[in-house]
Amino acid sequence: MEMDYMLDDSAWRQLLEGVAARFDELTIIRGFQLYKQGRVEELALRDDGLHVDARVKDNRMYDVIVDLDDLAASECACSANRACTHMAATLMRYAELCGRPIQALANARSALKRAAAAGKPSAAALDGKRGGVRAGSEVAATEVPSSAGNTGEDENRSALSSAPRSILPTLTEAELTELPVAKWHERFQERRGMVHLHIRTKQEASELLADLQAMRPVLPWALEQLFTLHALLFVLEKMVKPAQPDRHQSGLFKGYHTQLALEGLIGQARSLLEDKLALADDSSAYWGHLMETADFLRERMLIEDKTLGCFSALYATLWLRWLSPGSSGSAVLYKKELRQLQAAESELGPSLSRLPWTLAQCMLLLYLDRDEEARAMLARDGSKLMLKPEHLTPLLGVLERTEQWVRLCGWLAETGPLLVGFSGEELAPYGDFWAVVVTQMPEAEPVMWRTLQEMLPLSRTVYEDALAAHGRWNRWIDLQMCMGQDPLSIRVTALKPIEKEAPELLLPFYHQAVERYLLQKNREGYKAAINLLNRLAKLYAQLKKDERWEQFISAFVSRNSRQRALQEELRKGGLLS
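Above: the chain sequence. Below: its structure as tokens.
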């Protein structure tokens, strides 16, 4: 923590109360999303210690000034005219730099409501030292008299603390080897007890996971890998089920603590699956457990709410790593799994989660070298499933890792036009695959250009990067002019290679922009025009065409002689004596 970013307890409580009073819950949620995505790109505390300046990237860059002493006096360049998401994101980044818990800010409003309902002081509920929502609930649980009626969760906690502990179930190596994994989960549940406490926080998840790990002795590495994965899956399922009680409830609205815990569990499980499994084929004593793991993940993936994506991510990782062709997988296994997936469509009907179901089949078809079937499936259902670039990355990554460049080129050419509605950073990984393919297989370059052109205007950023990487400056400039791009909005570093290799191409680009600025007929437009005119002067000098420049600037000044503001800017810019 930097010394410049410090908040004493009094100032922290004041900030929490201000956030609770000024920001609605939706704004706080959206602000947290911006903060979490790293959109607060610049932040500085002024010398007065009361104002925070920041730049937040949303659909564009916004300048934010937060008044810590009076949040109502804060300002943002967006059009909200109130406490906005950019201010909320700035406050969360500032709290992080001060070493204060982000969850307290994220839950400030709900904590204040609970405090008001319980008739308690807001400072007690919002105290950052006690951890946001959890602190608020503890205040309510400890101070509300029992005659007022405890919640079921309070009764459960009381029962857990007062009931005598019985001998906890364990599992031996022999039991783990002989029992199916479904029985493992039953033993997990027995150890957890019949009292159900929903897992909501990372700490609760870690405590339960550690307790489950205490059930086993030292195991052979393969069996330990499988046991640890199922312990993680058990905790994950206990966390997911309360967020997904039926098909009508969306999993989008998870609390801050729960979201962190879910991400942590999925990250641990994926890291485990990334390690090589310590068994090679079906001759292993633990092969049946691996197949039961695949069944476990498939069953949950196929009925999982699309907004959660927990089990679908782990199912994909299992087949990409432990059951890939380079590990324990085989054609026989892939055909069997494919049949089970296909049968699920009629078995599950409307409850089937079609996106992970489709992607799972595509992966298996890819392993079986049945590319045309897989791509036909994506082409048929891609628009209905709202296919995203991130969904294709695992499939394309398989071909990249195995250096199957011809197949990868075919996949890129066929799937690119399916990525409707995505551009910029979202398409960047797709463009990276093309860059690798044409490096390894230069003859694929015409296919790349044709595909990217067909995807315009959405593929503009990827197309521009490819043109720049291959030094096709003529097409690059034509694209900028056709799109009406402002030269001053382009990074100087992006223009430097053109100035060095083909400076003459920039002349029409700059001249066109100068005329557009003049049409604005205001001071800002004139200043921008002068900026470009100075660039033009340098380009003409570099090209040793000083006479042409003199002719142009003389005609330009004469043609605009009645524009007094422009004449002033020309003098300030040194273009008119």
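Residues 177-329 form one domain.
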